[in-house]
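Quick one, tokens below:
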């Protein structure tokens, strides 16, 4: 077995053992290599996994092992798993405003949506898709919301830079 194959196997085992994405720095440290060499090992593993139910994804600023989408229904069927209840329309709207305008306050979200957003925000916090990221320097010091690494992972984004252009007018 050549060195590249062995490094790809070691990366595979690391990704399999970890619950979340690994950063390039973590991979480099654990594989005892330069960070600049990590993308080549990730690519080698991705190539090895082409004809398997698994793939390597760059999400939430790191690298993770995932099951190909074609196998999701099968896994749900045999595992008796039920996914979480779908997000409400209000929660989707709030999530969109937060994703593109973060950090943002509840009042700023409600100014865009023109309706109360408290319940939708509670749902998004409970799901781990958004979190409190600070307080605005304004009267009452309202909570600022932003997306979480879980948001990036759930939507397959490497970073917020991977979001498409905002589907609504920019904030004034």
């Amino acid at each position: 077995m050549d060195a590249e194959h062995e490094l790809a196997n070691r990366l595979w085992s690391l990704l399999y053992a970890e619950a979340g994405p690994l950063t390039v720095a973590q991979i480099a440290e654990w594989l005892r290599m330069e960070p600049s060499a990590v993308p080549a090992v990730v690519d080698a593993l991705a190539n090895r996994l082409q004809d398997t139910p698994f793939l390597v994804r760059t999400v939430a600023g790191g690298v993770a092992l995932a099951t190909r989408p074609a196998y999701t229904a099968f896994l749900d069927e045999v595992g008796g798993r039920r996914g979480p209840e779908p997000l409400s329309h209000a929660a989707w709207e709030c999530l969109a405003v937060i994703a593109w305008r973060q950090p943002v306050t509840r009042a700023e979200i409600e100014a865009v949506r023109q309706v109360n957003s408290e319940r939708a925000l509670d749902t998004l916090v409970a799901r781990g898709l958004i979190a409190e990221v600070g307080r605005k320097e304004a009267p009452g010091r309202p909570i600022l919301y932003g997306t979480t690494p879980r948001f990036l992972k759930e939507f397959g984004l490497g970073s917020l830079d991977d979001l498409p252009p905002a589907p609504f007018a920019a904030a004034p």
